[in-house]
Write a structure and sequence with these properties.
Number of helices: 15
Shape: elongated
Structural class: alpha+beta
Distance between the termini: 109 Å
Largest sheet: 31 strands, mixed
Low-confidence stretches: 6-19, 135-152, 340-348, 495-512, 571-575, 600-625, 635-669
Number of strands: 31
Mean pLDDT: 77
């Protein structure tokens, strides 16, 4: 009976006490002049930041079951060097207050609302940031005599119709985010936080949702802080899930990252620059490490434009520059497709091939890197390098790509490229060798022509320096060589490539009235000195004629000055005369040698002698000791018999002794 009586009293008393508490809380709110806290709040802000906080409107109270304090016209001063007086301006600030804690002198906020915030973050040319509050501190101004405690947080934060702008004049960067709505909820410091965002970044729509760890756990290293976030922007969907051991310092990161989209180009607005339209893309992997020291992305799987990439990437943030180390692999990398496929200028033929625009090399000085890549296939301009191995080292602006190894059209490729951007004029060193490549296959893959069949070897060894591709080519030094053994060419192909409408060379090749003409050999060597490449020798021997070329290609002016001189072997053809190739690399022109035409010189070669030094190194590129073009280039040319028959053998005699021995070791340099 006694228990029943006590229960009855409680059932009556507790509701009465709650009602009294609410009435008392409301009475406290009504009797409190919140304006008395304006000066105190402003003084505390001034003390902490050295900046003025202005609360223009009255702190008003709205009485309800969830009473609210609201104020309009709040501004926070910018740095004295800033581009505008206010760092932040706020149309309306509202705080909904819990009633019961007021009875005990505590101010707890249920909901915080910010409307029309305009926040400017900026960095000037000297690198000073307006969010660096290291300026002079003002003495605290005495506020009112209230005893309420300032809260550290709210159960819900709502922000709408607000803008955050970041301008960095030192870096030349500018970003702008618009917050249409942002809701952050958490029942207490020990409950998870949920987040929903709708807005835009650089005028590109952006949406995000997340469930995060508790606010209390952010400051505690005892338990990892969970993260589960989804971001939708620029047609991409990005997922981030895992934990951060110490979120306050961004250390102990352990996050799974996924991303995909239907069109890469839709990210242009987010990136703040044009992104090529390459189609669908995907990315996944695991991000671990500490933001202040090193981050590692493992289990990388990426796909774009028919290419794929996998492996591990590490980013070190300490030291003079960030450093990247990566071990990557791929089934196929289509570099042509990844280049965006923008194509040539639709305005017609350009006067120059080598661009004179300054090379954008500052990026090479911003980061160091050491990368290795193994790919089953790398495709560039249609050419397919299989079983490729690439090594990349970048240190202080000096980029070295070594080795460059693989199989190209059945031939072995080996070489290296260095681009040193650490100096005012970037230095280029390129050494590339290609042994016994299937020339017909390579030219078909590159969609150049199907007119040539046979195997050839190519060597390029050049150095240069300049601030643009044009300047590098104008000062280039070194040499390029080409040697081909037996093969065949479509009979009318040389006319298409060289002779144009003259039909002279077409007549030579069509002497047998066959679709193909047999090629015995071809040798081309271009020593390059101060941007001028000189043909010594240029020899092509076929079943119906032998051709000797001479002249120069000026890589600086891009002017051609070459002559192709045929030595006819068949009596059925007697009108072949030298062909001059002039004009420019971009717009070559072809014409007959007028003097030779006037003299009706058909099937007769002048006397041309290439020094043995010009032939050194060509033998191992070609078919070996019996390559007749090496012999032809190494000795003097004799006059062909007037009848022209059998001229090839006699013309190709007289090779200098010791050529083969001297050219060995070409790739041993």
């Amino acid at each position: 009976m006694r228990f029943a009586r006590i229960l009855k009293i409680l059932l009556v008393a507790v509701p009465l006490l709650l009602i009294a508490a609410v009435i008392g809380g409301v009475a406290v709110l009504k009797s409190t002049d919140f304006n008395q806290y304006k000066s105190r709040i402003a003084a505390e802000v001034k003390k902490a930041t050295g900046r003025d906080l202005v609360i223009a409107g009255d702190l008003s109270v709205e009485i309800s079951l969830s009473p609210a304090v609201a104020v309009e016209g709040v501004s926070f001063a910018n740095a004295d060097w800033g581009t505008r007086p206010e760092m932040m301006a706020l149309d309306r600030f509202e705080a909904q207050i819990a009633v019961l804690p007021l009875l005990f002198g505590r101010l707890e906020i249920d909901r915080l609302v910010l409307v029309g915030a305009d926040i400017l973050l900026e960095v000037d040319e000297e690198g000073r940031a307006n969010f660096d509050f290291g300026g002079p501190q003002a003495a605290a101004t005495e506020g009112g005599g209230g005893k309420l405690e300032i809260p550290v947080g709210a159960r819900e934060v709502w922000i709408e119709n607000s803008i955050v702008t970041y301008n960095d004049k030192a870096a030349g960067a500018s970003y702008r985010a618009r917050i249409d709505s942002l809701t952050v909820k958490g029942e207490s410091l020990n409950d998870p936080v949920s987040l929903i965002f709708r807005g835009s970044y650089n005028e590109a729509p952006l949406a995000a949702s997340a469930v995060l760890g508790t606010p209390a756990a952010m400051l505690s290293p005892d338990n990892p802080w969970p993260v589960d976030m989804t971001i939708e922007a620029g047609g991409a969907t990005i997922g981030i899930k895992g934990a951060i051991a110490q979120p306050a310092t961004a250390s102990g990161i352990d996050l799974a990252v996924t991303g995909s989209g239907t069109e890469l180009g839709d990210l242009s607005a987010l990136a703040g620059a044009a992104v090529p339209r390459l189609g669908a893309y995907s990315l996944s992997g695991k991000l671990t490490g500490d933001a202040a020291s090193a981050l590692t992305f493992t289990g990388l799987r990426a796909g774009l434009a028919g290419s794929d990439l996998g492996g591990e990437i590490m980013l070190r943030l300490g030291g003079e520059r960030p450093a990247i180390a990566a071990t990557l692999s791929a089934e196929i990398l289509d570099l042509t497709a990844l280049g965006g496929g923008s194509g040539a200028d639709a305005g017609g033929k350009s006067d120059k091939i080598f661009p004179a625009d300054p090379l954008a090399l500052d990026g090479l000085k911003a980061v160091d890197a050491k990368l290795t890549l193994k790919a089953k296939a790398i495709v560039l301009a249609g050419a397919r390098m299989e079983n490729a191995t690439l090594g990349v080292a970048l240190n202080g602006g000096n980029l070295v790509v070594k080795p460059i190894q693989g199989s190209l059209a059945g031939g072995a490729m080996d070489g290296s490229v260095q681009l040193d951007a650490s100096k005012k004029a970037a230095g280029l060193t390129a050494k590339l060798g290609l042994a016994k490549v299937d020339l017909g296959r390579l030219m078909r893959e590159m969609d150049v022509t199907d007119a040539v069949e046979g195997h050839a070897s190519i060597m390029v060894d050049v150095v240069g320096a300049g601030q643009s591709v044009a300047r590098i080519m104008a000062g280039l030094n070194g040499e390029a060589s080409f040697v081909m053994g037996k093969g065949r060419m479509k009979s009318r192909a040389l006319n298409t490539l060289i002779g144009g409408p003259t039909q002279v060379l077409s007549d030579v090749f069509s002497g047998a009235d066959s679709d193909y003409t047999a090629i015995n050999c071809a040798v081309v060597r271009f020593p390059v000195k101060q941007g001028v490449a000189t043909a010594e020798p240029l020899v092509l021997d076929t079943e119906v004629a032998a051709f000797l070329g001479s002249g120069t290609v000026n890589l600086g002016s891009e002017v051609l000055d070459l002559t192709i001189d045929p030595d006819v072997k068949k009596t059925t053809v007697s009108a072949a005369v030298p062909v001059n190739i002039d004009g420019t690399l971009a717009n070559p022109s072809y014409s007959l040698d007028k003097l030779a035409v006037a003299r009706k010189v058909g099937g007769v070669l002048g006397i041309v002698l290439f020094p043995p030094a010009a032939i050194i190194g060509l033998g191992e590129l070609g078919a070996g000791d019996d390559n007749p073009c090496l012999q032809q280039a190494g000795g003097g040319q004799k006059k062909a018999d007037e009848g022209g028959s059998g001229g090839a053998v006699e013309t190709l005699k007289g090779a200098g002794k010791g050529i083969t021995e001297g050219i060995k070791g070409l790739f041993g340099q």
